[in-house]
Amino acid sequence: MKYQKTNFNGLIAAGFSPFHRDGSVNVKVIPALVDDLIKKGITGFYLMGSTGEGLLLKIADRIRITEAYIEAIDGRVPVIVNVSHSSYAISNDLTRHAVETGADGVSATLQSYYPITSLNQLIYGIEKIADSQDSIPFIYYHIPGKTGLNFKMHLLLDELGTRLPQLGGIKFTSPELNDFMLCSQLHGDRYQMLFGVDELFLPALAMGADTFIGSTYNFMPAVYQNIIQEYGRGNQQEANENYFKAIRVIDTFLQYDGLAAQKAIMKMIGYDFGDPKSPVLPLSSQNYDQLYAELEKLGFFHELKTTLKR
């Protein structure tokens, strides 16, 4: 067993996948964004998840995008690669590729077409993926809004105990903060809880979360950095004000399709990652212009030009 625990922390950006107009992969846009985000304090990247459209891509495209990100990151911050697939065998192949390419962690949901109705089934599936390597942490991706797998994560960790050394923690993308708290308090000495609901950032921070994975960290990391800083200084009002800025932006783009709107925002700020893959549809030109105007009214583009408070 070569596995050693890896500690992730801070703001981990969920990476977007870049495409040309014809749908082919466009890796040229990746290095500049990676450099920019690392300079702005991003402490890691999570690839091929919901934001990265991993489940909609050809395996070859997943591999190419993953390799481009890891090459651009060049060991400066940790990388977690989502290896979800309906086939355990393919998840295992993607896991081995992630390890060989230099990832610091792998992550996955389980398939949801055939019903998983018990913790035993869930644990079996986690073990089928996690046991394909023994050198980096496996992070179970809990996102019941997408998968329908509504199991309590603290009960999952109760059942697992220490029987799966590769399990490093849970990417907790659920609004059930009570379950998150139970996981953190009962199992935080063994497992990391990586919080994944951007719009609940401050409540999770107040409950002790110290590691966050999210898509909006790609385009407003300074706002979240300020929340962390002001909350840590005991400046609750200032933390609330920055949190309000974040959730106003999130509430605005969620009036459209969240993924399509965020890829549009990336284009607005100079990083054209192309259109999302079907079944997600890109914003119409009218909706693109409308979203831009709404964000401008909120001061979003002005906020991008400001520096972090010190």
TrEMBL record:
Keywords attached to this entry: Carbohydrate metabolism, Cytoplasm, Lyase
- PANTHER family recorded: DIHYDRODIPICOLINATE SYNTHASE, N-ACETYLNEURAMINATE LYASE
Family per record: Belongs to the DapA family.
Its GO CC terms are: cytoplasm
The record's listing under InterPro entries reads: Aldolase_TIM, DapA-like
Where does the chain bind pyruvate? 51, 213
Pfam families according to UniProt: DHDPS
Q: Does the keyword Iron apply?
A: no
Any one GO MF term held by the record is:
lyase activity
Where is it located?
Cytoplasm
- The protein depicted here goes by the name Dihydrodipicolinate synthase family protein
